Amino acid sequence: MNTNQFARVAGLVGEPARAGMLLALMDGRSLTAHELATVARIAPATASRHLALMVEGGLLRVNRQGRHRYHQLASAEVARVLEGLMQLSVAQQAGARPVVGPRDDALRFARTCYDHLAGRVAVAIADRLVEERAVLLEGETAVVTDRAAGVLAGLGLADLASLQEESGRRPSCRPCLDWGERRMHLAGRLGAMLCAHCLQQGWLLRQPKSRALTLTPRGATALRKWLGGERWLAMAEPEA
Fold first, then answer.
1. Mean pLDDT throughout 14-29?
2. For residue 29, which of 195, 184, 167 has the smallest C-alpha distance?
3. Of the residues 112, 143, 179, 229, which has the maximum number of CB atoms within 10 A of its CB?
4. CB 127 within 8 A of CB 133
């Protein structure tokens, strides 16, 4: 382990303006330097210097389209580290469960975590898959079983061939501790597939300038049917 490099990466994440820009990219989309400067509430020139450091440090990558440069997280591994830091920061908050406003409740209900779903919706989906033994959770690993195709067919996801393919270092599925629910949702290629499917079907809609996702009436009907009444009520009305 190169301790100097470790400290450098930690320093890149730890600066407040850079942390704000990194978190703004946790929904998996790409943003311009100007948009990220607005998020961080800093001058565009200052934002450009911060962004250059994060690109050099391997936290971000730049996509060029015409005259425009778009920044996004360098990999799912970077997103995983950021999510872990978010979990740690929430865990260190002392006292009783905080009373939060509607925006925070929306994030707890459904949000993007890089390219996969998080929040109560994602935890409920993971619970159903584990209960049906379509996914087996074993510590820090998750295994997609032969039962997955039949279970996910109820959501309209029938072709899972890509999950069996080798795809670099990214696993087909892995557990990810949800910082809001403190229970597992699913990441990896299966998590990304579920997120993309829910967005493509119009079951969940992105919110402007937020990682929160809005559940549509069509989505409520589809997920209620697939999750079952009891699990749906526990998800939709957690305080009841």
1. 88
2. 195
3. 112
4. no
- Region of 139 (left: φ > 0; alpha: ψ -120 to 50; beta: rest) is left
Q: Give phi and psi for 228, each to the nearest 5.
A: 95, 150
Average pLDDT, the chain: 84
Q: Any idea what the Cα angle at residue 221 is, between residues 192 and 135, rounded to 5°?
A: 40
The three-state secondary structure class of 148 is: helix
For residue 72, which phi and psi values (nearest 5 degrees)?
A: -145, 165
Taking the whole predicted model, whether its pTM rises above 0.90 is answered as no
SS (H, E, C) 12-52: HHHCHHHHHHHHHCCCCCCECHHHHHHHHCCCHHHHHHHHH
Please count the other Cβ atoms lying within 10 Å of the Cβ belonging to residue 122.
31
